[in-house]
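thread from #wetlab-drylab

HS: before we spend reagent money on co-crystallization trials with protoporphyrin IX containing FE, can we at least see a predicted complex? here's what I'd submit
DV: go for it
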Amino acid sequence: MADAAELDLIENGTLADYAIQSQPNAFYAALRHGDPVHHDPKLDSWLITRHEDIAFVQSDPITFSVNKGYHTQQARGMQAEYQEILRTEGGGYFPDAIMSDPPYHTRIRKLMESAFTAHRVKDLEPRITAVVSELLDSVADKGTANAVKDIAVPLTIRVIVEQLGLDHGMENKISRWSVAVTAQIGRMQDREQMLENARQICDLQHYLIGKMKEREANPGEDMISDIVHAELPNPDGTTDKLTFAEAVSLIRAMLIAGNDTTATAIGNLFFLMATRPEIADKLKEVAEDDRKLSRFVEELMRIEPPVRALSRMATKEVVIGGTTVPEGAHLLLVYGSGNDDETVFPDPRSFDIERPNLGRHVAFGGGPHRCVGLALARMEVKVMAREIVRRLDGIKLAIPVEDIRYVPTVATRTIESLPITFTRRAT
Ligand code: HEM
C-alpha cells in the first residue's frame, strides 16, 4: 500500500520530469505500491512497474507489440517530418528490422544471435582487455579523468567499430550519432533538437551505406560483411537475402544499441565505486575470481540498470496486474522499477552479489526481445571492473554529487559526464 507521500507522488509526478528521471527510485516505489500499472498523462503512456507485470508483458509479443510500440514512440508527434528528412537527405527511412514482432522477428533475431554467441564473445576477451588496459593506462598517472568521456564511451565505441569493421578515429562522430538515434525514443526532444538529431542520423546512414557498398564488393571478416551477405532461412528450407533496408537498419542497430547502454553501465560502475565504499571494497575482494566478478557485474546491472524503460503497444484491450489497458495503449516497461521491486529483490538498494535470484533482474529485458548483445556487454563491463582494480586506487568524484547530470530521456538513465580523481595503484 502506498503511504500519503507516495499517493501525492503518484498524483503529481511524471516520468517526463527531469527531477524524477534523475532520481527515480521513490517514484517507482510509489507506483509499485499504489498504482503499479499507471497512466502517465504527460507521456500518454502506461508505466508498468512491477517485476511480475513486466515479465507478463514481455512474454507475449503478439498482444504487446514492439513494432508498434517502438515505431510510434520514434520522434513522437513529429514522425512524418522525421521520416521525410531521412528519405530526402539520409538515403531512406529504414524502420528498425529487429524492433518487429514474430514471426518476422524470429527470423531476424536468429541472424543477430549468430553474431553474438557467448563463444564468439569469449574469443574477444583478450582484445577487449587490451583496449581497456590502454584506456586506463592513458589516464592512470594523471590522477584525474572523465570516466564517461575518456574511458566508458571510447571503450564501447572502439569495440563495436572493430566488430563491424568501421574506421578508427570516428569516436566523437559515432558518439554523437548514438545520442541522435536514442533521442528519437527518449521523448524529451523539442522540434529543433529532433531536426538536428534527424540530420545526424542522415550522416550516419550515408556513412554506413558507403561501408556496405565497399563490403558488398570486397567482403571481409567483419559483421557488416556478414550482414550484407546474410541469407535468412525460410521454414521450407529456402533462403532469402536481406533487403537493403533491412541490412541498413540492422547495421545501424548493431552500431548504436550497445554503445550508450554499455558505456552507461561503466559510468555507473565508476560512480558507485566513488560514492559507495562498500561496493569499491567488494570489487577489490572479487576482482580476480571470475565467478564472483560475474555476479558483481549482474548485481551492478540490477541496482543501476542503464536501460530504464522501453516501449510496447497493446494490440487489444488487456488486463495487466488487475488494471485494464485499452487497445492501442502505449506502454513503457520500466525495467528500472522491476529491478527495484522489493517483493523479488529484498532490500533492493543494498548491493549484494549473493542474492540467490540475481539472474531474474530485467536490465537486459526478457522474453523474445531479450538483449541480443548481453554477452558482449557483460564481457566489456567485467573486463573494465577487473582492470580498474588492477590499476586505480581511491576513486573519488571530482565534483559535488549534486552536480552530476543525467541525460534527459525516459529510455535510459545515463550519467552525462563524470569527472573523477584517483591514484595509480602501486604494483
Ligand atoms: C549494459 C549494456 C546493455 C543493456 C543494459 C542492454 C539492454 C537491452 C534491453 C533492456 C533490451 C530489450 C529491449 C526490449 O525489451 O524491447 C535490449 C535489446 C537489444 N540489445 Fe541490448 N543492452 C546492452 C548492450 C547491448 C549490446 C552491446 C548490443 C550489441 C552490440 C545490444 C544490442 C541489442 C539489440 C539488437 C536488441 C534488440 C533485440 C530484439 O529486439 O530482439 N545491446 N538491450
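DV: The radius of gyration is 21 Å.
HS: ok that's useful, forwarding to the group
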